[in-house]
Amino acid sequence: MAMTDLLDSLRQALGADAVETGADRLRYFANDVYRTGGLPLAAVRPATVEALQDAVRLCATAGVAMVPRGGGASYTDGYIRPEGGHVLIDAGALDEIAIDEANAVVTVGAGVTWANLKAALEAKGLRTPFWGPFSGLAATVGGSMSQNTLSHGSTAHGISAQSVIGFDVVLASGDLLTTNACDAMRWYGPDLTGLFTGDCGAFGIKARIRMPLLPILQDAEAVSFAFDSFADYHAGVRTAQIARLDDSHFGLDLALSQGQIARQEGVGARLKIALQVMQKAPSKLKGLASLVKMAIAGENPMRAGQYMCHFIVEGFDAEDAAHKAKQLRRLVSQHGREIANTVPTFVRSVPFAPLFNILGPGGERWVPIHGVLAHDKAVAFNDAFHALLASRKADMERLGVWTGTMFSPVGPSGFLYEIALYWPDARTEYHLTTLDADYIKGLKDFPADAEARACADEVKEAIVALFQQFGAGHFQIGRAYPYQTRLSERAKGLLGAVKRELDPQGLMNPGALGL
Hints:
Layout: H1 3-14, E1 19-20, H2 23-29, E2 42-44, H3 49-62, E3 66-69, E4 87-90, E5 97-100, E6 105-109, H4 114-122, E7 126-127, H5 141-147, H6 154-157, E8 166-170, E9 176-178, H7 192-195, E10 205-212, E11 214-215, E12 219-227, H8 230-243, E13 248-253, H9 254-264, H10 267-280, H11 284-297, E14 307-315, H12 318-332, E15 337-339, H13 342-349, E16 365-374, H14 375-391, H15 393-399, E17 402-410, E18 414-423, H16 429-434, H17 437-441, H18 450-469, H19 489-502
Parallel strand pairs: 2-4, 3-4
Antiparallel strand pairs: 1-2, 5-6, 6-10, 7-11, 8-9, 8-10, 12-14, 12-15, 13-14, 13-17, 16-18, 17-18
Helix pairs in contact: 1-3, 8-14, 10-11, 14-18
Protein name: FAD-binding oxidoreductase
InterPro entries: FAD-bd_PCMH, FAD-bd_PCMH-like_sf, FAD-bd_PCMH_sub2, FAD-linked_Oxase-like_C, Oxid_FAD_bind_N
Organism: Novosphingobium jiangmenense
């Protein structure tokens, strides 16, 4: 089938408005947060699962590669195909939400954002166990399940992959596969659902996701600690992590806290959320007390220590939340000191912040690099990372390249160490389209800087290699992190066999996961 025939067929099947071929839009779709790839042949936005199946069948008949895209917040080339010529499938219009309160299950379209899902469930006093990353205004449920992610609810309930019962997946043939054999649970025999978590769409395109439901716990305590060294920080959060007293927590070093996070936590931001704090507080007196704490704290929590950690503790009632918070303080205070709880109060009130962090606090380009470490390797990795920075200090300072770090729990046994890398450089169509024009006007406008970009890329690759030396695992593997080199020959053979069975022509996001 000629490419013009394919485009005509797609327009006929999906509607002309659902097939984009304009150069400006294709340039936007050719970028993620970090990298620019080849131009897609087209970007399609099917409005129903049946339309998605039709689009996949047409592409398969034409032998054209298909690349699924969720909210677009990938920074690991997850939907970037270097050679271009593919059909990018934007799942954003698959946005239905069906809440089954009797069975405590919600079924959502792959394009539903975590923010919209939260709003729909909150109206009924419900939530999913894991309920979204910080980028949940844009990040979709389908994208998060395909990439794996964590943040809200992760201490108590794990990552996104642990909060799913089953998928409906459109395979490369256009057929629809339901991964769970039982609506009431995921693990009926071998875990076929798990096979499609973290696959980056290489095995198929997620159409629907089924997740379990929990009641929202309205009573909560926000607790923050500061630490003078990374070793103290790690010891404190390791103790908290295994105790699982909090719903979620995250840590920041001084550079990130004063830079990227402080930009969202300034005086104006706190004034903006003051009403929300009061509205969400179980008691108005308690809400007023929180506001007074925030006012007294000023910006001090951003500078309270070399490392800071922020906890959100939920309870069945105020007494339960206070009891858990007391136990948490007892454990963590052995390693750090309690500080004003401005940051977790903000996050609880505004869990999904605007995507300002896709640029640095001064308008620089930004990319995160992360690894999930075993706890006994965390301190040694931190030492090695700082030694790596010291070895490149002269070039990084000359070129304006800098870093900050953030940390999160991954269940009781994994420690996520995430490095934010910044450098001065021109913005891409992705940044200019994603961010509001008025917001961008308030930032410094950097010219293209090939030398700084090359330095940042070298540092990024060196960090990825260092993570591998310490045996780290990764979320959002895409095309950026090594995967198959970490597998045994038997495991690689099994992975390849699954790919050939589900996608014999190799048309589903070719190159993702190294497939």
